[in-house]
Design brief:
With about 375 residues, this protein is an alpha/beta fold. The chain is about 30% helix and about 20% strand.
């Protein structure tokens, strides 16, 4: 898809894909766009689709259609994902069905989870139960920054800690370059602040399992009625409750996408890009420059980034992971690659040599039968 406007036939509608399950798409109709096109007799072009993807969202209580995708889109390789603005051919109102005929260009796109036209990421963590782990939080923040979207950090269960501890956490995260919002779903603390942040935007909510994401969504959107689970007492971790990606309409405006909970997001950036995902490191680069333009901020001389900032050790660990990943990708292009990816404790990834000896491999039945046939032929 390019940036050109889409051709809309009279009777066609537009909408946003709320959920994708199997080969069906739940699409909420954009009645504002339909009203704007009323009265035109001939085929017309919508306003710039690039801007329409970020402009006024679906009006509250808009009707929802269960749609399929036209085979033409499949033939040209056009995927339809959650968050897509789509064109729906004349719907069957009696059956509540429709067919997606085209997809507007996306102004942003996430791959995991697959969702389009997101404006910001709402990163939710708990200050306790499960305890706040700086390394895990740092990894989520770097992943969020790598998307190029605005990252809003909310810390749930703030009612369970003293004000002094809350002030210490705030000071620590300020040094990282973030202004956290302390909330409590249980005590309804600062929930209105979160609503204002989400208003008129498409937001992806993310965070480790058990921090209260589903409970927060149920508070913001009572009709969502998501399943919640208690934190595991043995592991001090949450249990996964979300199984698929879905956009929920927020009363008062905005759409919120819940994502399956996970403990350690993948870091898929290059070694050179990594430093730009640490705001406190970028602050150092703004105040000066490294001696070498390709500095990785490890042992290079006259490096302005290397120093005593708190997350520097995290940066070095993530950097090593990015370097190993880059090496692995190059090895993958080589048919004689001898590296494999393994996940170690705390979600850390490591690349190890692959066992190449064929004597440990089981012979397939097909090859066994071929050998038997060859033996029979030799005997004859």
């Amino acid at each position: 898809m390019s940036g050109e406007a889409l051709l809309i036939n009279p009777g066609d509608l537009t909408g946003i894909v709320l959920a994708v399950q199997a080969n069906y798409y739940r699409v909420q109709l954009d009645l504002q766009a339909e009203e704007a096109r009323k009265g035109k007799k001939e085929k017309s072009l919508l306003p710039s689709p690039q801007s329409s993807a970020t402009s006024a969202l679906i009006t509250p209580n808009s009707p929802i259609l269960l749609c399929t995708r036209r085979s033409r889109l499949k033939k040209i390789g056009q995927q339809v994902i959650v968050g897509d603005r789509v064109v729906i051919e004349e719907p069957d109102w009696a059956g509540g069905r429709g067919a997606i005929a085209d997809v507007f260009p996306r102004h942003s796109e996430l791959d995991r989870p697959a969702i389009a036209n997101v404006n910001q990421i709402l990163l939710v963590f708990a200050v306790t139960d499960p305890p706040l782990e700086p390394y895990q939080l740092s990894r989520f923040l770097v992943k969020g920054e790598s998307t190029g979207l605005d990252v809003v950090l909310c810390l749930n269960k703030s009612d369970l800690i003293a004000s002094q501890e809350q002030a210490e956490i705030k000071q620590r995260l300020n040094a990282w370059g973030y202004q956290p919002k302390f909330i409590s779903v249980y005590k309804d603390i600062n929930i209105d602040v979160v609503k204002n942040i989400l208003k008129s935007k498409i937001t992806v909510i993310a965070g480790a399992s058990g921090v209260g994401k589903s409970s927060l969504i149920n508070t913001l959107i009572p009709s969502a009625n998501l399943r919640v689970a208690e934190v595991s007492g043995k592991l001090a971790r949450g249990r996964h409750t979300t199984r698929h990606v879905e956009l929920f309409e927020i009363p008062g405006g905005g759409l919120l996408a819940d994502t399956p909970g996970f403990n350690q997001p993948d870091l898929d950036c290059t070694p050179e890009e990594l430093i730009s995902y640490f705001p406190e490191a970028m602050q150092r680069l703004e105040n000066g420059s490294c001696r070498f333009s390709d500095c990785l901020h490890r042992n290079e001389p006259d490096c302005v980034v290397r120093g005593d900032w708190e997350r520097y050790e995290d940066y070095l660990e993530f950097l090593q992971e990015a370097i190993e990943r880059q090496t692995w990708l190059k090895q993958q292009a080589d048919p004689e690659s001898n590296l494999k990816l393994k996940t170690k404790g705390k979600g850390r990834q490591q690349y190890e040599p692959r066992l190449e000896s064929k004597k440990y491999r089981r012979v397939s039945r097909k090859k066994q039968q071929q050998k038997l046939q060859e033996l029979y032929q030799e005997e004859e």
